[in-house]
Design a protein that fits this description.
β18 and β19 form a beta hairpin. The strands form 4 sheets. Strands 1, 2, 3, 4, 5, 6, 18 and 19 form an 8-stranded mixed beta sheet that branches. Strands 8-17-9-10-13 form a 5-stranded parallel beta sheet, with helices on one face. A 4-stranded mixed beta sheet has the order 7-14-15-16, with no helix packed on it. By secondary structure, the protein is of the alpha/beta class. The mean pLDDT is 95. α4 packs antiparallel against α5 (254-263), α4 runs parallel beside α11 and α9 (394-410) crosses α11. The chain has helices spanning 15-27, 88-103, 193-204, 234-250, 254-263, 286-293, 359-372, 376-382, 394-410, 413-421, 437-462; strands at residues 2-11, 32-35, 109-112, 115-120, 125-129, 135-146, 163-164, 170-172, 185-189, 212-215, 220-224, 278-284, 298-299, 304-307, 311-314, 317-320, 325-329, 344-345, 348-350. The structure holds flavin-adenine dinucleotide. Flavin-adenine dinucleotide binds next to α1 and β4.
């Protein structure tokens, strides 16, 4: 058995473990051991469906030290006019490059791939190779970093949460590209972003809308990609933030809040007649939304309970089906929903969201705070855990937590300086746009509503449902 020592043991070399490690070695002289059971970094992106792309621009995803792609605006295709969004293949190649050309050559990072973290024993933390069974014991001088707490649930590695009769034709969303023969129709199971991606891909690939049946137990509030554009388009992004805060500050009750957010374009819905009950930060462009709306065969009878050969049983009824119909499982949860726990604890850092739905930014911020702030009480004040949202009303809690944290950051000159140099900070570069009238009006609206938005959101949270 081999025994090694390190300052930090980072469990999980997904996007968050990578962003944390990259930021930590930039901000300190610490050394790091990383462990992941997969063969290379990038986490769930290694098993993602082939046509997936980032939902946001690459320009603020990944690690701080290396640009992902070229920060270019797409000129053609469905993303035309918006900053490029990397494919899963681009993301995986990027994280491999970051590891091989930046982290390992630093001489301060050591990586154990194809190895399970097997817990803490008497002599230290145990890593077990999946290939040889050999155990390496790691003695940690500073902290264990859990970059698995929000491990992503993905279609190809999840078990469908319903019964499946032998003979029923169900494929994971990854299997769509392997089809060799036309189907009589396609039944998409799931209401989240994966289901939207599957529908969009089928439509873009020439499948008529009336050949798609969409089992959508819940509808989601969606974000408009136009408001998540950084760099040259930053005034629009800030306009969006300020409109969110204005809605938060002025809303009389929860229904009024969502009405305002929709009226000002900050939240979109698929079906104008159906009130969404879910919010998971899924992002679409307006053309994608229009395209998805052409699918009229939407089944809202709750979750699937059993997929039979000739019938699909749901919580609130059943519909006929047949063996020539391809059923596509898009029911994996994606973002892991769990209770928040303190990010900084005596021997441990548990990576979680702080700014809502910005996993790599948050991981890099946590590393910066770990390296530069004196004690855990102060660190936890700057980085309160902000669990991923799932119900529509979680927008309120997630926005309030995010906004409270931003206020703390604004009062800290070191954090503010880091925010301005972090490529993962979508809002960096405000000073470059101060002559732009849209930025001026966004900042004015921000100033008017920043102080009153959080107390009003807290009032809405406390009000009886
Ligand atoms: C389709 C899709 C699109 C998305 N698009 C965006 C986007 O545009 N922008 C955005 O910010 N986020 C997006 N996300 C969210 C995404 O989950 C995060 O961006 C990020 O990739 C999550 O990284 P992670 O490190 O938390 O988790 P993971 O990628 O799940 O990585 C966790 C790693 O931990 C390893 N691990 C777990 N347990 C152990 C153990 N015991 N021993 C060893 N290794 C272990 C796993 O093998 C895995 O590699 C998207 C998610 C999905 C599913």
């Amino acid at each position: 058995m081999t025994v090694i020592e390190t300052d930090y043991l980072v469990v999980g070399a997904g996007a968050t473990g990578m962003a944390f490690t990259d930021s930590l070695i930039a901000e300190s002289d610490a050394d790091v051991v990383m462990v992941d059971r997969r063969h290379r970094p990038g986490g769930h992106w290694n098993d993602a469906y082939p046509f997936v792309r980032l939902h946001q621009p690459s320009a603020f995803y990944g690690v701080n030290s290396c640009v992902l792609g070229t920060d270019a605006i797409d000129e053609v295709g469905p993303n035309a006019g918006f900053y490029h969004r990397a494919t899963a293949a681009e993301i995986c190649a990027y994280f491999s490059r970051v590891l091989e050309e930046h982290l390992l050559p630093s001489g301060r990072v050591c990586s154990f791939a194809m190895s399970d973290y097997a817990g803490d024993g008497a002599g230290g933390h145990r890593l077990v190779s999946r290939l040889t069974g050999d155990t390496t014991t790691v003695r940690v001088r500073r902290r264990l970093v859990d970059a698995t707490y929000q491990e992503t649930g993905i279609p190809s590695t999840h078990v469908p949460p319903f019964d499946i009769d032998p003979g029923a034709r169900l494929i994971p969303v990854n299997g769509l590209v392997d089809l060799t023969e036309p189907a009589s129709g396609y039944t998409i199971i799931g209401g989240g972003k994966t289901a939207m991606d599957a529908c969009t891909w089928l439509l873009d690939s020439g499948v008529p809308a009336d050949a798609i049946r969409w089992i959508r137990p819940r509808d989601a509030w969606l974000l408009d990609r136009a408001y998540s554009q950084p760099l040259d388009a930053l005034p629009t992004l800030l306009e969006g933030v300020s409109l969110n805060l204005a809605s938060a500050a002025e809303a009389h009750d929860v229904d009024d809040l969502f009405r305002r957010l929709e009226d000002c374009g900050q939240l979109l819905r698929l079906d104008p007649a159906v009130e969404p009950t879910m919010y998971r930060c899924a992002t679409v462009s307006r053309p994608e939304l229009e395209s998805l709306r052409t699918i009229e065969n939407v089944v809202r009878r709750g979750r699937v309970v059993c997929l039979g050969v000739d019938e699909i049983v749901m919580e609130e009824g059943s519909i006929p089906t047949d063996v020539n119909q391809v059923h596509v499982d898009c029911s994996a949860s994606g973002l892991r929903i769990g209770p928040g726990r303190p990010i900084f604890e005596p021997d441990r850092i548990t990576l979680q969201q702080v700014r809502t739905c910005q996993p790599t930014f948050n991981a890099a911020l946590v590393a910066f705070v770990e390296a530069t702030v004196a004690d855990d009480a102060a660190r936890n004040r700057l980085c309160p855990p902000n669990p991923y949202p799932t119900a529509a009303t979680d927008w309120i809690r997630a926005t309030a937590t995010s906004q409270r944290a931003e206020t703390m950051w604004m009062a800290d000159p070191d954090v503010m300086a880091w925010l301005q140099r972090s490529r993962l900070n979508a809002a960096r570069g405000i000073g470059d746009h101060l002559d732009d009238p849209r930025m001026q009006s966004a900042l004015a609206r921000f100033g008017t509503n920043a102080a009153t938005s959080v107390p009003n959101l807290e009032r809405l949270l406390a009000a009886p449902a």
